[in-house]
Amino acid sequence: MSDIKIKTPEQIEGIRKACRLAADVLDMIGEHVKVGITTEELDNIMNQFILDHGAISACFGYGDPGFPKYTCISLNHVVCHGIPNDKPLKKGDILNIDVTVILDGYYGDNSRMYTAGEVSTLAKRLIDVTHECMMKGIEVVKPGASFREIGQVIQKHAHANHFSVVEDFCGHGVGIEFHEAPLVLHYDSPKVTDVMQEGMIFTIEPMLNVGKYACKVLADGWTVVTRDRSLSAQWEHQILVTATGYEILTLSKL
Ligand code: MF3
Ligand code: CO
Ligand code: CO
Question: What pLDDT, in 10s, does the model give residues 93-152?
């Protein structure tokens, strides 16, 4: 059994504000995502917005080697932890933008998919099915539910649509720290025995691939790609377990 923190009402209020800002960043950046802009430019626009709202990026300097940018931007066959760079977006690119902020000491973490120009039917379907998987995982959340059920519903929907589910990266408890217990698996495993309680806060952030589920990390120590170079998509919300179910803390206002 992992030691999952139950957040106090005061902590929940602080985490709610951090999540509101993290979602506002993703709302704000949408209109900037276009063919020709570089991911570094997108990263700088988001970092300025975060600073202007009295927060900082949780990503910059995180881990070992320290993450070198303010947000993760993962294109096409990049599964997650893509490092913003000076390459312009091309027509047909699909990208995940993952933003985690620290506001008054509390963490808000979320990500969404964006597209540059017209994208393929397959890419659209991958993006939509991945979003459906995240929402099905969220709908499981209530006191007394098992974390295992999240992985079960996500895996079932992904496989029914002939996509694979990444196993090397998981959702996680979050709020007081960036990555807390528990690990939230997006696939089914009998090893998962944790049960949800009111006041727990965690992310659900499934990654689905068109091809096989296997991933590898590039030499930069961060960029995760599909081994077979197939397209990958991801969505992430931060969720509070309430008395009767769940509250999505990172809803879009758009
Ligand atoms: N935001 C990512 C997550 O969902 C973690 C990014 S760590 C970073 O857990 F260092 F790459 F930013
Ligand atoms: Co996360
Ligand atoms: Co994230």
Answer: 999 999 999 999 999 999 999 999 999 999 999 999 999 999 999 999 999 999 999 999
Convert the pLDDT of each residue in 95-108 to its tens digit: 999 999 999 999 99
- What is the C-alpha to C-alpha distance for residues 200 and 172, in angstroms, rounded to an integer? 11
Phi-psi label, residue 149: left if phi above 0, alpha if psi -120 to 50, beta otherwise:
alpha
Q: Which CATH superfamily is domain 9-248 in?
A: Creatinase/methionine aminopeptidase superfamily (3.90.230.10)
What is the whole-number distance in angstroms between the Cα of residue 73 and the centre of ligand 3? 10
Nearest CA to ligand 1 atom 2: 98
Q: Is the CB of 63 under 6 A from ligand 1?
A: yes
Model pTM greater than 0.90? yes
* Domain chopping of the chain, boundaries: 9-248
Strand partners, 72: 98
